[in-house]
Amino acid sequence: MDICPDPEGWGPISQSIYNFTPCFLDSAVKLVLAVGLLILVPRDVKALNRSQVVFSPFDVWFYVRIGFILLTALAELIYTAQIAVSLLDFRLWASITYLTSLGATLYVTYTEQFRARVTSGIVLYFWLFSVLLAATKVFGQVQRRVYDTYTNVFFLSVFILVFNIAEFLLSSLLPKPSSQYELLTSELDDSPEAHANIFSRITFSYMTKLMKVGYENYLTEDDLPNLPASSRTDVTQQVFDVAWQSEKTKPKPSLTLALVKSFGSSYLIAILFKLSGDVLAFTQPRLLRNLIVFVNSYNTENQQPISAGVIVAIGMFSCSFLQTVFQQQYMQRAFGTAMTIKSSLTSTLYRKAMVLSIDGRAQKSTADIVNLMAVDVQRLQEITQSGQGLWSGPFQIILCLYNLHALVGNSMWAGVLVTLLTMILNAHIARRQRALQKVQMKVKDKRTRLTGEILVSIKSIKLYAWEESFIRKLNEIRNNQELANLRTKGVLSAVSNFVGSCAPFFVSCSTFAFFVWTSNKPLSTDLVFPALTLFNLLSNPLTGIPQVITQFIEATVSANRLREFLITSEIQDDAVKRLDAASEKNEQVVSVSKGTFFWDQAGRLPPALKNIKFTVNNTQLACIVGRVGSGKSSLLQAILGDLFKASGSVTVRGHIAYCSQVPWIMNATVKDNILFGKKFQADFYEKTIKACALLEDFVALPDGDETIVGEKGISLSGGQKARLSLARAVYARADVYVLDDPLSAVDQHVGRHIIDNVLGPKGLLSSKTKIMATNAIPVLSVADSITMLRGGEIVETGLYTDIINKSQSEIYKLIKEYGSEQHNEEEAVVDIQGQSFSENKTTHPLATGDGEDEEEEEEEILESNFGISLRRASTASFKKPALIDDMPTRRSRQVKEHSEKGQVKMSVYKEYIKAANIYVVVLFIILMFCSNSMSVGGNVWLKHWSEVNTEYGGNPDTAKYLGTYLFFGVAAALLSLIYTLVLWIFCTIEAARKLHDMMLRRVIRAPMSFFDTTPIGRIINRFTADVNRVDENLARVFTNFFTNTFKVLFAIIVISSANPIIILFAIPMTVLYVYFQKFYLRTSRELKRLESVSRSPIYAHFQESLNGVSTVRAYSQIRRFNKTNEYHIDFNNKAYYPSMIARRWLAVRLEVIGSFIIFLTALLSVIAISIGSLSSGLVGLTMSYAFQITSSLSAIVRLTVEVEISTVSVERILEYCKIPTEAKEIIESNRPSLDWPTEGAVEFHDYSTRYRAGLDLVLKGINLRIKPKEKIGIVGRTGAGKSSLTLALFRLIEPVGGYIAIDKLNTSRIGLKDLRQGLSIIPQDSQAFEGTVRDNLDPGSKYTDDEIWHALELSHLKAHIKSMDGGLYSLVQDGGSNFSVGQRQLLSLARALLTPSRILVLDEATAAVDVETDQIIQQTIRNEFKDRTILTIAHRLNTIIDSDKIVVLAAGRIVEFDTPDNLLQNSSSLFYSLCKQGGLVE
Q1: Which of 27, 315, 330, 855 could make an S-S bridge to 274, C-beta 3.0–4.6 Å?
Q2: For residue 194, what is the DSSP state?
Q3: Are strands 793-799 and 785-790 parallel, antiparallel or unpaired?
Q4: For 1303-1348, how does the pLDDT look when each residue is reduced to its tens digit (9 = 90+)?
Q5: Nearest CA-CA partner of 1100 in 1010, 1011, 1017, 1014
């Protein structure tokens, strides 16, 4: 007794009052608190000493905090002197240790002022526990009335409590002022989480600032806080990559294991929080039993004191509050880990896609890869968020059964049996769901792939009037496969939910039945309501486990799909040996020795190239020629390393620049496309654009070189794209230039200009090594070597000077037969703009400025580059991509993705309900209401039954009570099954079908200006992420929302009916609830919208990169593109992460309100019992509903936002359902005859047009009369308006003045389908679709196989198609990748041959084929289309020289229109000058 002289002893529980003994508080608790601090604080001190000095100013609050610590120490010292009676008194040594700990806190507080922005978490916990210790002591002293006997001790205890509270509040709530030094550092760019103390993190108070901003104003991109450093994509991707590379060394790598290794540690912390929260959840039923025992004691002589009930109420509040803290910390870490998994996988998918082999790309189309990102990665994110249910569910069931056993003994085994049967049934349902999910993902892939193809090829689809064919094809997949499978999934989901909702009831029913039949004890209120609370808790895992299993199944399928993609074959690392740049002139720069190359690694396909021996020396121009499909592009791909090398070697010295045959243009400004990540150097930039004949284009473009060119450069002409791609290569100043027929899309005179100023001996690239696959004969005259390919083999190669002297050479014959266009420098001088002047310097209409000045300028530029080795362009530092156009006055700017502001409009909900059928929706709500009513009725009946049993001390009329209880439960479960089936089958599926169909039709019928200004990735986002949310999320969200709403509604009714006085407290709580709800809704809504909008750039950049992957790889720009992708992901996460934290912020606050409701309900029950106005049954019933309110309140607000979020997807779909469309397809009142046009006469009447509003006219005042069967050649400089003329004819662009008449019928007055079906075209951009050859030629199945074979024969494709496996039914890969560009143009020719139109438009129809094939095709056209009116746009002037008339366009106007003979007789005509430049006239 010497070490603690207090008469109550050590306790720890006092025998006289409901509190701890003084000795226990003043010695044991105080000692543990002090020692804990002293053990942990050195870690903080060490961290502080290592941290950067911040020098926070010494403000007044700093001195106040120091003062309170000193005052606490002084008061503690005096208090110890008052209570300690000897040196052996344990309280003395405990106080000395505590004073030492106060000294440690003083040191840490002082040091933090110099080295930390955040107060130590250990110190804050110390002050919190000190407050609790002091408060408990003061409360105990009040209970013992110490203030009467030991006044000094009491007041010292009060002072210590006040000082502790003041220190705790100042330390936790007051932020430290920033120093001037700190303002200069980058720390202010950190996440607000980095500067939040431990309690701010627990309550998520660091989000309050953003919540206030969102409440007062609409949030914008600039308001979003930065991500925590550990959550940035570059960090998470690197962590995952290390684990995945390790896994890839195994025979069967596991994606799941790699993710666990990468992010398992943070997830483990989440597991610990979840475990603690679950244990606390099952503590409440025990406290409830204590409360009911307390209530029942008032029916006996041994009444418990009121303080016992109050302590139980406080215990319930504390338990609920701590459960909230643990649950929200778990959620924050689980969702944070899920986000890092999503970002790291998305980045990894992008990186993988950038190094896929051709074989790998053949297996996975662009749409497939986008689907992996949009859906499969999302599945893994979802299972990470909710996957804890896989162990937490069974753990909660075990806890529940353990507690049940403590209540009802062996009767709980009946419940165990029901639980096992439920789990077996769910396992069977899960297996079926897994099979359906696999099918669902395959069908979704198929739909996404077809959607992507439609969007990529929309121009061709419109030209051929194939819209309905493709809509039918897509709807077949969507409605008859995807939604049919989803309907079956919905039925299974409803059955699974039915089993889950039935299970808790049948468990309780079987347990109670077994108890009353086997036990002599009454089923009293102190057993029933704790058991009922346990059954309610049991409902969460039993209903949640099926959902988690479903998600797990979906995630497993997705993980396998992702794994398969990540182990897909990549380009060979050793395909090309890369060495330093050559320094000697005749040194070999490119060498292919005995090379055999395949398209696929397995060698299943025939070799692309065989026995290749090819060398190019430094500064040489090596040209590769051959017929269509001979392997020209394949040889270039082999040099780039894209093909699989089976044997031989490839060596390249120096950096590569590459021009693909189909120019790849980024969705950026013209200038950015040319710079392509290189530093801007004004003088060489100017030389580049002049040499590539772009200067005049810049003048014509609406914003010059700051003009934004859309995805794939769709606002540029074919020639402009080609020259822009060439300018990118020239500006790079690489060592080796790999050029895939860059002259095919440019006019002949522009081609001559590029040869002279870029490729030739006096061109900008004269000091560089150039390898060019070409069909252009003029360039061969400046080539150092020429190589001819046939069937993938080199048949001839040699120097140009040697070949010219070999009359038997095939290359010589090619040059001799087709190379009449020899350049004569004395006869025609090509200026730097691609303009031509004859000897007398006559200026033609394309010239701008004085000819003499321009000639001098040309000489100056050429002289400055002769013989000079260009220094390679420096790489620019990474610049964050502009997500918002920073030039609002830019006329060519892309339309920013629209984002609504504020609350989702009621009209959106009405539209969705209308699509889902309003009567069925009303039926769903009524059925749900009835189901919940039955559930409440069952609980009220149970309350009545238990009160009867308590009163009788036995279990009378068991069959009656049990039967009625069974009726209520079965009725509630059956009604839940019915309303779930109604929701899935008659609402969700129907609405999903209608919305997708409306959006699809509207998008396909949108004008081309929509596709010019909207990235395809943005549109695909609507057809993937948004459609997926409408398909699968909306039903779940709406069900959960209404379920929780009805739960709260009935809970409030039950609680207020038992304790009407609680309504007085409920009013301020409701006000607070509504305040938090509005506060949260406004911010969260905008965060979700920002997240949706910021998701589109990820898809757009992904799609764009995949389209130009060869170019990106060739320029060694993968790292820059990876960074851009990571920036887009991080920007999306910057909206997602605060949105997730905002949910936690709300949940903490609302669940604390719920905890107060539990406390008030219990406290009021205690007070009511003390005055004898409440039964134990009613207390049990109200408390069981009060426990449900806590989670349901926050769930309602969360689900309100989820409803809005999911409805935002409906809003976004409806937005696309309202985009403007083209003119009507058919105008019934003005339809032409079925055989229209019968003659083929075409007239332009003062016709003017522009591509879209705000841009300049591209055609101006066109007046043109074309007689039936006339053959018209259309020429003009690139960008003059040639292709615009054809687009106008098909009404892809509408007139702003004048009209076009065909056979004297104004085409603006008839339907587009009638117009386009009456015309035929071979477009400039040849398109092929995934499917069969037959589908590509005749998607509407209008023609017989014989007719199609005849068309293929005339287009010279019959032999190639017959050699393919399947003939007409051979598969065409994504985008026609297994056909060369030339072969795709021949497919377009075959389509034209099938269309019996009187008017044919040839828009560069043979630009990508060799000259021999071109001549054959031209002969076919003359023979097969001799009775048709033909409008031909051609760069090869010899193909239109025999036309009946020639139209010469310049700057959107017709400057010449006459017969070729008449135009050629006029030496001052523009046509004559073009022909002279092309070598067609002497």
Answers
A1: 330
A2: G
A3: antiparallel
A4: 999 999 999 999 998 898 888 777 788 888 898 888 888 889 898 9
A5: 1017
| Each residue's pLDDT tens digit, 788-804 | 998 899 998 888 778 87
Element (H, E) at 312: helix 306-353
DSSP 897: P
CA distances from 990 to 983, 994, 1037 (A): 10, 6, 17
**C-alpha angle 854/859/865, rounded to 5°?**
130
CB neighbours of 1020 closer than 8 A, spacing ≥ 6? 367, 370, 374, 448, 451, 452, 455, 1099, 1103
CA 541 to chain centre: 31
The answer to whether 95 and 82 are in contact (CB under 8 A) is: no
Does the pLDDT value for residue 184 go beyond 50? Answer: no
- Residue 171 identity (one-letter amino acid): S
The per-residue pLDDT for range 421-469, each reduced to its tens digit, is 887 887 788 788 878 888 888 898 889 888 988 988 898 899 888 899 8
Average pLDDT, integer, range 1296-1308: 93
User: Containing H/E element for 670?
Assistant: helix 670-675
Task: Quote the percentage of the chain above a pLDDT of 90.
Answer: 27
Q: Residue type at 458?
A: I
* Mean predicted confidence (pLDDT) in 383-395: 88
Task: Give the tokens for residue 86.
Answer: 């000897």
Cβ-proximal residues to 1361 (8 Å cutoff; 6+ apart), any chain = 1333, 1352, 1367, 1368, 1370
Measured distance CA(18)–CA(12) in Å, rounded: 11
For residue 1256, give the DSSP letter.
Answer: P
Residue 211's SS3 state is helix
Which of 536, 246, 441 lies closest to 1192, judged by CA?
A: 536
Q: How confident is the model at residue 593 (pLDDT cuts 50, 70, 90)?
A: very high
Gap between the terminal Cα atoms of the chain? 126
Q: How far apart are CA 187 and CA 177, in angstroms?
A: 14
Structure tokens that stand for 388 in this block: 């804890």
Give the Cα separation of 1087 and 1205 in Å (integer): 10
Burial of residue 1451 (number of CB atoms within 10 Å: 0-12, 13-18, 19+): buried
CA distances (Å), origin 1284, targets 664, 751, 891, 1102, 1247? 21, 21, 19, 30, 12
Alpha-carbon 637 to chain mean position: 31
Helix H or strand E segment including 657: strand 656-659
* pLDDT for res 82: 82
pLDDT of residue 991: 92
Residue keyed to tokens 């009037």: 465
CB within 8 Å of 497: residues ≥ 6 apart: 543, 546, 976, 977, 980
Name the percent of the chain lying above pLDDT 70.
91
Contact 71, 164 (CB under 8 A): no
1265 DSSP β-pair partners: 1243
Amino acid at 790: R
pLDDT category of residue 848 using cuts at 50, 70 and 90: very low
Helices (H), 953-1061: 958-981, 989-1004, 1008-1013, 1016-1021, 1027-1028, 1034-1058
pLDDT in the model for residue 1455: 92
The Cα 1088–Cα 1135 span in angstroms is 7
Which of 420, 331, 378, 349 is CA-nearest to residue 551? 378
Average pLDDT over residues 71-87: 85
Is residue 612 a contact partner of residue 542, using CB atoms and an 8 Å limit? no
Which of 1019 and 700 is assigned the larger pLDDT? Answer: 1019
Residue 726 has pLDDT above 60, yes or no: yes
Task: Please report which residue ranges of 12-120 form alpha helices under DSSP H.
Answer: 22-23, 30-50, 60-83, 90-115
